[in-house]
């Protein structure tokens, strides 16, 4: 089951910059009729709103505040949800700060997608199923010791996304798990990856293709595709397989 974005109504979290902003722009370029752009501070979306000719609607969404997620789901015309918002807090795994970093990243990167799925599942189902895309990371399948707690949170998010694929699929909702490598965003810069980062547009185009093809896994950039080349066999035969029968 594929999902074409043309003429559809979408909602994107973390839309005020980086990958999220590019996703909003990309969806509009590919014909989305309206995009609810979510951010912790709706005022930060003014530029996107002005450029869109009325097709972008700002929405306050803070994944740490479940009430804002639930309020956003009152927009009952949403057909595509892209949960892009995420946080990274670098911490030495053996330091005293590691537990705080892990707790913070899990609240946003793991509980956040769960809150979004729970709130929007009935909305998407009511609108024919639609699609739910979760922006995970290449670090969800390979941990890097420079930011281990972030990697752990993305691995957990990826696990939840796998379950959402099965659960929401029964309601006619396509689920896509997006796994970017280093992308030119503030987060990549803070992680010291700016020299190898690729533009956010590669994520947008890969996501739209994955949606159209009905693909669960989306590995968009050069590093991600290299990982996918090694990982695809396992992903196809185990992760994407129906093993409920044992």
Structure characterization notes:
This protein has 246 residues and is of the alpha/beta class. The chain has a single domain (9-239), classed as 3-Layer(aba) Sandwich (Rossmann fold). It contains nine helices and seven strands. The protein has helices at residues 18-29, 46-51, 66-72, 98-109, 111-126, 148-169, 186-190, 201-213, 222-239; strands at residues 9-12, 34-39, 56-60, 80-83, 131-135, 174-178, 217-218. Strand 2 (34-39), helix 2 (46-51) and strand 3 (56-60) form a beta-alpha-beta unit. Helix 1 packs across helix 8 and helix 5 (111-126) runs parallel beside helix 6. The protein is globular and about 45 Å long. The two termini are 25 Å apart.
What topology emerges from the helices and strands here?
Layout: E1 9-12, H1 18-29, E2 34-39, H2 46-51, E3 56-60, H3 66-72, E4 80-83, H4 98-109, H5 111-126, E5 131-135, H6 148-169, E6 174-178, H7 186-190, H8 201-213, E7 217-218, H9 222-239
Parallel strand pairs: 1-2, 1-4, 2-3, 4-5, 5-6, 6-7
Family: Belongs to the short-chain dehydrogenases/reductases (SDR) family.
EC number: 1.1.1.127
Protein name: 2-dehydro-3-deoxy-D-gluconate 5-dehydrogenase
């Amino acid at each position: 089951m594929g999902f074409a974005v043309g003429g559809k109504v979408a909602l994107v979290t973390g839309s005020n910059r980086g990958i999220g902003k590019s996703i909003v722009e990309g969806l509009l370029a590919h014909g989305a009729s309206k995009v609810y752009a979510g951010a912790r501070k709706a005022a930060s979306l003014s530029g996107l709103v002005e450029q869109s000719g009325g097709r972008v609607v700002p929405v306050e969404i803070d994944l740490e505040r479940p009430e804002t997620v639930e309020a956003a789901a009152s927009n009952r015309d949403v057909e595509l949800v892209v949960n892009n918002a995420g946080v990274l807090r670098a911490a030495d795994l053996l330091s005293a700060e590691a537990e705080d970093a892990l707790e913070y990243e899990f609240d946003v990167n793991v509980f956040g997608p769960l809150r979004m799925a729970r709130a929007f599942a009935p909305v998407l189902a009511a609108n024919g199923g639609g699609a739910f895309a979760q922006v995970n990371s290449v670090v969800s399948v390979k941990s890097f010791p420079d930011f281990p707690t972030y990697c752990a949170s993305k691995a957990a998010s990826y696990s939840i996304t796998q379950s959402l694929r099965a659960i929401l699929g029964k309601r006619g909702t396509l689920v896509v798990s997006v796994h970017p490598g280093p992308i030119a965003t503030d987060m990549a810069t803070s992680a010291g990856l700016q020299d190898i980062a690729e533009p956010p547009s590669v994520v947008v185009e890969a996501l739209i293709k994955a949606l159209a093809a009905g693909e669960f896994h989306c590995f968009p950039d050069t590093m991600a595709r290299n990982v996918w080349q090694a990982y695809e066999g396992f992903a196809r035969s185990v992760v994407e397989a129906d093993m409920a029968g044992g």
